[in-house]
Each structure stands twice: as C-alpha cells, then as structure tokens.
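Exercise 7. Given the encoded structure of a 735-residue chain, write a plausible sequence.
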C-alpha cells in the first residue's frame, strides 16, 4: 500500500497569459492557514521568478508530487487583496474571459506587482521653519499664496504632494528658497485617520433640481445606481459634494472616478475646499511609490476621498460609503489593451458588492447607461438648466457646400470670429486631426508617402519637421523628394491643427492662437500651463482636438467652431453618431459659461441630415433617445451584447483559418449572431494584419456561455500559439 502523503499547497494566480492557476508547495516549517489567501508569494516559474497572489490553500494537487515546486518566499504578513477584491478578481476573469493571473496583476499597483513591500512607506511633508509673523508678513507682502501656505503651516504640516497640488509647485519652491519651510520625511503611520482632518465648509444653496437629486441619493440605503444626467454647467459637481457630505459624516469613504483629462488640480481643490485635507489622488502622472502610497492610505483609512482615473476602481477601502463615476461616457474608462475592462462596469459590481450607492454623472450619458435608466434599472436624475446665471449656447449648422473655405473655415464664420475677438472674447476651433496635414502627396505621380508597417499615410508635422505614422508613432524627417518618382513638388493634403493654427494666426495677427492637442500638451504640466494661459486671457483663438472639449471651464469663450462634422455621419463605427453628439455637446459646454451667451457652429455638407437637425434643435437628451431607437431597430448594443475576437499576425494566411474555426465552433449556438471574420478598422498595424469576428446575442449569459465553451478549443488550434489573439467583451473600439 502506498503511503498517501499530504502537502501544504497554495494555489497561485500568476501574471501569465494562461487561463489557470498554479500549485506550489509551502515548506513544512511555515504554518499555512486561511490568512495566506490574498497574500503575495514569490515563486519559481520557468527560468524566472514571478510574483503571484494566493487564491486558495489546500493539501492535494492534480500535478505529480515530484513536479511541484516550493514557493521562494511569502511577501505579505496580511492580505493585500482583501476578500472583496478577491471576489471581484474572480468575477472579472469570468466576465472578461481573461487569464486570472493577469486580472489580479491589473488590480494591483505596479509596486506591489513587482514584489515591493506593502507596508506604509515614509512620505515627504512640508514643515514651517520660521515663525516671526511680523517679519514674515514683510517678506511675503508681495506673495499672497506663499503667505497663505505659510499661515496654514502654522497649524499643521502638510504632505508635500498636497501642498504642491493646492498651492502649485512654484509657491512651495518659493517658500523653501526663502528658508521659511522645509521638506521632512515622516513615517506614514503617524498620519491620523481622515475623520480627524475632516472640516466641512458650507455648501451652496442647491436649486430645485439639485435638491431633488440630492435627496433621492440621500434616501438610498445600500446599493442603488443613479444616473445624474445634467447639462454642462448644471452643477453636477455641487450635487456630488452635497451627497457625499452625509457619507463622510458617517465616517465612510468615497471613491470618485474621473476621466484621465478631468483630473485637474482645480477638481481636487474643489473637494479639498469643501472637506479639508482628506483627499487622495491617483493618476497616471504619479510614480509607482506615490500610487502605492495612496492605495495604502485608502486601506489604512488615512484618506476619506479617493479621486482617480480608471484603475483607481481597484482601490481597497476600509470603510466604503459611496462610488461616483464622473463623465461616465468618457472612453478613457475602458482599458484598450491586455485586460479590456470598463471601469464603469466594475463600479457597478463593486457598489453592489460593497452595498453602497453608485452615481454616474454626465451631460452626455453613454447609450448603455441611458438604456439602463429608461428601463428603471438605474434611478434617473436630471438637471436641465445651468446652475449659475449662464444660458445654454445656441447650436447652429452651417452649410459649407460650394463655399470657398479658408483654412477649413467658411468666410461667414471668419467674420463672426472677428466680431467676437474684437469684443474681447475667446473662440474655440475644433479640428479632428492633429499635425499639419494628414498626408503628403506627389504632384507628379500621385504617390502618397505611407508607413509600410501600417499601410497608413504619414501625417505631416511641420513644427517638428517630421512625418509621423499615427498608428505606430514611427516618424522620420519630411521627405523632400517623392520616394516613388523622385519629383520634388510634394504637396500636403487635408487639414490638421498645426495648419489651421498657422493659417488663423496669419488671418488674425492681432490675436494670439494656441494649439491644444496631444502634441502640444505632451510633458508634465504642459496642459495645465496652457489652460492657465488661456484662463488668464493670454490667447484668444484656441485650436484643438478632443482634449479641448473635455471638462475645462473657459469663462471667456463665446464661440466654438467645429470644422467638420460629416465624418461621423458616414462612419463604419456604429457609435460614431453618439460620439459626435457627445463632442458637440461637451464643446458647447465650454462656450458661454460665465455671463456671456455662447454660440456653437457646426460646419457640414449635410445640413438637412435628420440626426444633425435633431441634435441642434432638441439637444443631446433628445438626440440620444433617437439614437437608442435606431440601435434597437438595427439590433445593436445596448440591446445586444457583443464579444469581439481579434487576431493579429504578420502572416495574414494564419488569421482566417483561426477565425473560421472560431466561427465554426460558435455556430453550434443557434442564438448567436456572427459578423465576420472581417478586417479590423485598422487592417494593418506595426507590420501585423488584423482581423476580427464579432459575436453577439440578446442574452449576455448565453453569449458568455458559448464563448467560454469555445475558448478551450481555440487555445488548442494549431495557429493559436503563432498569432496574437484576444477577447474584448463589450468592445467599444473596432479598429
Ligand atoms: P457641472 O459639474 O455640471 O459642469 P458645476 O458643479 O461645475 O457643474 O457647476 C457649474 C457652475 O455653477 C460652477 O461655477 C458652480 O460653482 C455653479 N453652481 C453650481 N451649483 C450652484 C448653485 N446651487 N447655486 C449657484 N451656483 C452654482
Ligand atoms: Zn506605422
């Protein structure tokens, strides 16, 4: 008889693209118990070591005993992934049909993923050095902000990052240079729990619509989802501030998600002004240590409000009380690579799991969320008017058919711009493309300079004297001769932000043009600085792409021009009209915010198009309802659920057999509809061809069941290891 040996085993999720967990042995001198679950371990994997999360403990493995390896070390004394996050991770792996180890790696801050200690690190704080108040008043008589900070330091030291966020780096630097303050390291453990730092300032007097919204949320006990649909400037942020007040008073934490671009010092300052120094901020500009620090402050109850971008949805809280997703329609909430999760979906799961209210706010809600509000799954709250005295801008269509455009703009609009500028107002010009021109074409032979890796015309950038491929970011100096025929008469084709900036600057030499696009705002604080210049009135003509349409308050903008709206009406992407409506409405939100009425002009060749008419005459709320009807008739999301199977390879012949096989597997499920295989929106990128299969069903469960079923077979298809393929659940991007 064989002696049955029992082992101490842990089941570990490792950040590898395999849909399974891995068993490891735990040395007998360690006491293995349930408290290991959620802790990180370092383990040998192949020829390397990996950091993984323990998902379960046990005594028996399906792997042969002699093949099992020991863990190298246990990294945590207590779990970094708590029960709630553990459950969330398991759910995500199922919902997104994604390898579980990569799911947990996505949830952890980078520093923890790399195996760094999870104890609270020291933080830098700013402390006062000097205290003779008379002398101080003299030294700082011309520096009010420095004086204010100095006075604050009289009472308490302030974390350096917070001092910089609230007063600016320059103010902090000024104080330090004058020898009035200094930076000290202190142990994070010393920081008091946030309720001790809570100082609630008086709220604004809510208007009727705001009051209705606020009391509706206040009455919710436990999980409930609210859509706060409020036109731009209607005071949504004030509603957030007022509904979180009682939550904070009860000692509960609030998690607020904002789009990448919406996380400005001004946003953070509004919450700190109302509630004091209890805000932890998480965004992509932080380094690993800073992110980890906020994560830990959240779980240690040292911050009461966490404001962050997409991945902050994974922040563990000690006393969760509410979740808010601001600008819920924003596409930055969806991660487009690796684990293609949508932070909005995760927010719903977490709010339910934690039994707390969830508020999603937007002036231009996604059709997905609107549909849930109409079906009463979400409570629908509406703010239909601007809160301050400002009126909504008028939206108008301008027929440009047959008009002689100058730098893309109709002469009539140039005249109107001039009038606005002469009155001391600012004007926004929205352009879809950045760069100087989207193509360089040979006058002699018609050849277009193209990136061969992507089959994509190079965009000309005159500012940097480069041609760049906007798919793979490859760039090189602008060619002087056609690479096909050698002729030197090359011409640019189409209009980008750079060219319109140059042109308008020449047309309006008395005013300053500024360009806001991903080229001009690259680099730390670049965007913030440009926005500050705009608000100080240093520029009058603001030319930009998407970035310009989001969340900024420009008090003096009275006119906005959208150079071309037609692309979206004839796009292959069924969401293009939704995005166009959001863009126009958000852009309108930038105009006429203060006391001056605004106007928004939409240049089009299709002024009679029913969708455009609906949008400008009835506004986004009505337009979105029309779009929803169209989606329903066309059997598209949100009335259908979709999964996208995407395959990429340098060898195009490998792709179709794989996707055809997938289609064959899935065709056994009678209630699925399949589209494809067909080329992706971007057919070639960085030397790889790209094909997709879209699978859809009215039942999410049915769709997931079918896909789950097909997965194993797909993984053993002979082409599977030779190509890159991925699953995108509820895809937004078909390129
Ligand atoms: P949103 O978040 O919907 O864009 P905000 O909350 O930023 O709107 O409010 C827009 C402007 O209206 C802000 O300047 C804000 O201070 C002001 N505001 C909001 N609510 C009120 C109110 N109840 N009374 C007066 N002004 C308000
Ligand atoms: Zn390229």
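Solution.
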């Amino acid at each position: 008889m064989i002696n049955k040996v029992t082992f101490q085993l842990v089941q570990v999720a490792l950040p590898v693209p395999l849909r399974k967990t891995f068993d490891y042995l735990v040395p007998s001198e360690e006491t293995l118990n349930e408290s290991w679950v959620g802790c990180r371990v370092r383990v040998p994997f192949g020829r390397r070591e990996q950091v993984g999360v323990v998902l379960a403990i046990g005594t028996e493995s399906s792997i042969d005993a002699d093949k099992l390896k020991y863990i190298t070390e246990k990294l945590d004394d207590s779990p970094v992934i708590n029960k709630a996050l553990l459950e969330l991770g398991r759910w995500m792996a199922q919902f997104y049909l994604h390898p579980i180890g990569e799911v947990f790696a996505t949830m952890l801050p980078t520093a923890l993923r790399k195996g760094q200690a999870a104890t609270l690190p020291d933080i830098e704080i700013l402390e006062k050095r000097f205290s003779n108040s008379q002398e101080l008043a003299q030294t700082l008589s011309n520096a009010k902000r420095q004086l204010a900070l100095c006075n604050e330091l009289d009472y308490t030291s302030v974390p350096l990052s917070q001092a910089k966020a609230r007063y600016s780096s320059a103010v902090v630097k000024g104080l330090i240079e004058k020898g009035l303050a200094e930076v000290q390291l202190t142990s994070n453990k010393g920081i008091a729990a946030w309720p001790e730092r809570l100082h609630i300032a008086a709220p604004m007097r809510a208007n009727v619509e705001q009051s209705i919204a606020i009391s509706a949320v206040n009455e919710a006990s436990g999980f409930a989802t609210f859509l706060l649909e409020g036109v731009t400037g209607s005071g949504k942020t004030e509603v957030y501030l007022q509904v979180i007040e009682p939550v904070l008073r009860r000692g509960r934490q609030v998690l607020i998600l904002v789009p990448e671009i919406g996380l400005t010092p001004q946003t953070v300052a509004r919450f700190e002004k109302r509630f004091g120094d209890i805000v932890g901020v998480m965004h992509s500009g932080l380094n690993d240590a800073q992110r980890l620090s906020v994560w830990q402050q959240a779980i240690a109850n040292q911050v009461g409000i966490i404001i962050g971008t997409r991945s902050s949805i994974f922040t563990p809280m000690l006393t969760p009380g509410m979740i808010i997703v601001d600008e819920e329609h924003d596409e930055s909430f969806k991660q487009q690579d690796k684990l293609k999760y949508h932070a909005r979906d995760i927010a719903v799961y977490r709010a339910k799991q934690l039994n707390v209210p969830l508020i999603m706010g937007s002036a231009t809600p996604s059709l997905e969320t609107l549909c849930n509000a109409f079906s009463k799954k979400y409570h629908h709250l509406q703010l239909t008017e601007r809160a301050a005295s400002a009126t909504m801008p008028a939206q108008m269509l301008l027929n440009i058919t047959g008009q002689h455009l100058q730098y893309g703009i109709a002469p009539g609009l140039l005249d109107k711009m001039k009038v606005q500028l002469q009155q001391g107002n600012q004007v926004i010009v929205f352009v879809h493309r950045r760069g100087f021109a989207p193509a360089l074409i040979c006058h002699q032979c018609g050849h277009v300079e193209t990136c061969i890796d992507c089959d994509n015309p190079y965009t000309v950038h005159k500012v940097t004297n480069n041609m760049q491929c906007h798919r793979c970011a490859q760039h090189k100096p602008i060619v002087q001769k056609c690479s096909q025929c050698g002729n030197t008469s090359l011409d640019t084709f189409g209009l980008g932000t750079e060219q319109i900036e140059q042109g308008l600057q020449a047309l309006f030499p008395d005013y300053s043009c500024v360009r806001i696009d991903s080229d001009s705002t690259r680099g730390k604080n670049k965007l913030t600085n440009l926005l500050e210049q705009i608000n100080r009135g240093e520029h009058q003509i603001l030319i930009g792409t998407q970035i310009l349409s989001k969340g900024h308050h420009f008090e003096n903008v009275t006119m906005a021009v959208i150079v071309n709206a037609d692309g979206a009406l004839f796009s292959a992407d069924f969401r293009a009209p939704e995005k166009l409506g959001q863009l126009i409405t958000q852009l309108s939100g930038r105009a006429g915010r203060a006391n001056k009425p605004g106007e928004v002009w939409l240049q089009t060749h299709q002024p009679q198009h029913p969708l455009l008419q609906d949008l400008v005459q009835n506004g986004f709320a009505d337009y979105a309802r029309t779009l929803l009807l169209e989606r329903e008739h066309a059997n598209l999301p949100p009335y259908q659920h979709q999964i996208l199977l995407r395959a990429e390879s340098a060898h195009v012949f490998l792709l179709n057999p794989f996707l055809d096989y997938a289609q064959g597997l899935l065709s056994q499920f009678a209630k699925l509809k399949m589209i494809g295989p067909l080329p992706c929106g971007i057919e070639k990128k960085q030397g790889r061809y790209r094909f997709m299969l879209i699978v859809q069903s009215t039942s999410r469960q049915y769709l997931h069941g079918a896909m789950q079923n097909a997965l194993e077979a797909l993984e053993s298809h002979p082409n599977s290891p030779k190509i890159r393929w991925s699953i995108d659940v509820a895809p937004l991007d078909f390129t």
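Remark. The chain has six domains: 5-113, 123-186, 194-383, 394-435+495-633, 439-493, 641-729. Students should compare their own answers with the one above.
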